Amino acid sequence: MSESGSEQSKAEKKREYNRNAQRVFRQRRKEHLKALEAAQREQSSTQGDELTQLRRQNQELLEENDVLKRSYGSTSTSPTPTTTSTSPDMSSTSYAPYSMTRTYATAHATTMPLESTSAVPQMTQNLMVLVPHSISEIRNSLHALLAPLLDYGVISHPQNHLATLAVVGPQLPSQLQPTTIQLSTPHHAYIDMIPSPSLRDRLINAGSANATAFMKQVCTIACEIEDQGQITVWGEDWMNEMSWEFSANVLEQWGWLLGGEWGRRANFWRRQRGAPVLQGWEG
Question: The whole model's pTM is what?
Answer without folding.
Answer: 0.57
